Amino acid sequence: MALQTLEVSELGEILAALAQRGYRLLAPTIRDGAIVYDEIDSHQDLPIGWTDEQEAGSYRLLRREDEAVFGYVVGPHSWKRYLHPPALTLWRAERSEEQGFTINEERAEADKVAFIGVRACELHAIGIQDRVFLQGEHVDSHYRARRENAFVLAVNCSQAGGTCFCVSMNTGPKVNEGFDLSLTEVLVENRHFFTVEVGSDLGAEVLDEVASREATAAECQEADRSVQNAVEQMGRSLDTEGLKELLYDNLEHPRWLEVADRCLTCGNCTMVCPTCFCTTVEDVTDLGGESAERRRLWDSCFTTEFSYLHVRPRVTISLPLTLSPGGSVRSSSASRYRQWLTHKFGTWFDQFGTSGCVGCGRCITWCPVGIDVVEELNAIRHTPGSGASERGE
Amino acid sequence: MALPPNPAFTAPHVNDPMVPQPYRIAGRREENYDTFTLELVPLGDEEPHGFRPGQFNMLYLFGIGEVPISISGDPARPELLAHTVRALGTVTTAMKELKVGDVVGLRGPYGSSWPFEALQRQDVIIVAGGIGLAPLRPLIHHLLSERRRYGRLVLLYGARTPGDLLFQKQLAKWDEKTALEVHLTVDRGTVAWRGNVGVVTTLIPRVQFDVSHASAVICGPEIMMRYSALELEKRGMARDQIYVSQERNMKCAVGFCGHCQFGPHFVCKDGPVFPFSLVAPLMKVREV
Ligand SMILES: Cc1cc2nc3c(=O)[nH]c(=O)nc-3n(C[C@H](O)[C@H](O)[C@H](O)COP(=O)(O)OP(=O)(O)OC[C@H]3O[C@@H](n4cnc5c(N)ncnc54)[C@H](O)[C@@H]3O)c2cc1C
Ligand code: SF4
Ligand code: SF4
Ligand code: FES
């Protein structure tokens, strides 16, 4: 279907049409001074007329001079909050007389949810998590149920954030696949409209319920210009040439110690990252011990528990009995920062055939001390390490 | 975009890979002061699933937690799934209290196995440290079940003290029948101990094998595996003839939780058994 044009006032009708079909609307909205993803009732809950200013370690909302609906980039939330929730009950078990206990699986069911305003980098991030949870030998039924019931209303970025580098990662700013409908917002002189691209039959059906019309050549041009604007504004750029090999060759590099001096190992970067998928599990029982539950929680490779292995109590000559309570494989913060960066930009390729980074800039913005992955990678690239010999012995 | 629904998957009661199945403890044996073996049979009437030597299961203890434990029994008898557990922390200590008839949750088997096909016509040097013998025992069973296919079979086994050595009666029996040459060593002897004292790597220079047709399989603490492999290399064995079983923290065993990562490898699904040639460079780097 050719590109369609939608007046700004008609966006509300698209959302209403989705709600009519039983979709909960999950969309950007303002809470506590940031743009987060939450349930909205109508398009009026969108951050109309707001924008964000982002730099390493800083984030600020500002009023725009216009009434742009999507005139900001990504905030601390990503859609993984919904598809791969921070806490999830996997199953419950009850004690039973004859067989000890029985396990009641949590049915993997999901509401129909429409994601409103999904950016190109975020769609790529969802594609990456699909590889983790759907395309291996085992399938995560909870992720699958949520994924199957999600409608994606994407938005092409018409301005880039200060920490964005999707162009380097080849993930944006234009959405190219994996959406039901995709919008480009155009604000020129006294015109304010969206061009709409249809990505699926379902998307076409929904658009059909709204009075859109075919976009004129001039409107298509304006839309292209709008996306080009984002390309030109890209806050950062990263040289991705041979990154994996670079990291593999520099597992021993002085920069890891240097960044570890600044890193608080707070794990913020992993929490805000739309592709980070690590979890831990927690077993809880009721007071009487009659029922138990297994929960899955987001986890971060920045904790020492993450790589904990039990070490036996040791008998040594100097101390008759040293009770070593167990140890972390990655006890130094340098090794944990190395794990994160090497995973995102290196080992991910071997594991899932893709980069683990989509260039959304969240980890840079939300790092309390402003550590910047782009800067760290550049530092390793530009200072010869001692590690090049590490591959052989 | 919405995914095309997959009827096979969205059907109710198709198990999520994280849901354990109930197994009853059919047998329990005390191996030594802190190690015990549990033999498990499925509670339902489903067929027992087979396993390959070197694979592990996730065992769940009601309300307490779940841990990865290697299968330690005979792969020819999968109906009785043996697991040999050393009581160390929360879950494994609580497991020590389990009695015959109790029920645990089990999911698996997971992971790669010892490369028994590649071992045919080879001398096989088996190097084990402590509880590391447990995941090697199914391989020994398997090699002995088709003894003629292999050359010399040698087990080098080290533990901290004589009391820590596992499966001693069984090892003695295998050794007696000369099916398997067994060499034991302990870090610290006792008055009664007449055998070798010293770490297991010290046994390697003395073993006899035909280096042009020999392989080694190693399981124990990481440092022990690394030094054993280096000793074997000194004897002329090539890196790709050596296999090690890695250990990492595990929370899922199915590639979802990320905890078991070891460089590019997921120990739960790409391992735990790896050719040493693949992991040697990483094993040299600290804290990977
Ligand atoms: C592939 C594999 C096979 C194993 N096979 C055996 C076996 O046959 N027999 C045996 O006795 N032990 C085996 N282990 C080690 C066993 O899993 C740990 O001893 C056990 O997880 C400790 O749990 P805990 O709750 O008793 O200890 P805690 O110290 O309370 O541990 C807390 C948590 O840390 C994690 N953890 C601690 N140590 C380890 C570890 N060594 N490996 C993985 N996760 C750990 C677990 O998630 C555990 O729940 C194996 C480990 C792996 C990875
Ligand atoms: S690593 Fe940083 S920039 Fe890359 S996807 Fe994750 S949060 Fe975004
Ligand atoms: S890099 Fe920044 S956000 Fe990530 S763990 Fe370190 S201090 Fe926290
Ligand atoms: S144990 Fe969870 S990914 Fe390997």
Layout of strands and helices, then pairs:
The complex is a heterodimer of chains A (393) and B (288).
Chain A: E1 4-7, H1 11-20, E2 24-31, E3 34-39, E4 50-55, E5 58-63, H2 80-83, E6 87-96, E7 100-105, E8 113-118, H3 120-133, H4 141-148, E9 150-156, H5 166-169, E10 181-188, E11 191-198, H6 201-208, E12 213-214, H7 217-233, H8 243-249, H9 254-262, H10 268-272, E13 279-285, E14 291-298, E15 308-309, E16 327-328, H11 333-352, H12 362-365, H13 373-382
Parallel strand pairs in A: 2-8, 8-9, 9-10
Antiparallel strand pairs in A: 1-11, 1-12, 2-3, 4-5, 6-7, 6-14, 10-11, 13-14, 15-16
Helix pairs in contact in A: 8-11, 9-11
Chain B: H1 7-10, E1 21-30, E2 35-42, E3 56-61, E4 65-70, E5 81-86, H2 90-95, E6 103-110, E7 123-129, H3 137-145, E8 153-159, H4 168-176, E9 181-186, E10 196-197, E11 214-219, H5 222-234, E12 242-245, E13 261-262, E14 265-266, E15 273-275, H6 276-284
Parallel strand pairs in B: 7-8, 7-11, 8-9, 9-10, 11-12
Antiparallel strand pairs in B: 1-2, 1-6, 2-5, 3-4, 3-6, 12-15, 13-14
Bound molecules: flavin-adenine dinucleotide, iron/sulfur cluster (2 copies) and FE2/S2 (inorganic) cluster.
Pick out its properties.
heterodimer, A: 393 residues, alpha+beta, four-stranded antiparallel β-sheet, 13 helices, disordered C terminus, B: 288 residues, alpha/beta, Elongation Factor Tu (Ef-tu), domain 3, Rossmann fold, 2 domains, seven-stranded mixed β-sheet, six-stranded antiparallel β-sheet, 6 helices, 29% strand, binds flavin-adenine dinucleotide, binds FE2/S2 (inorganic) cluster
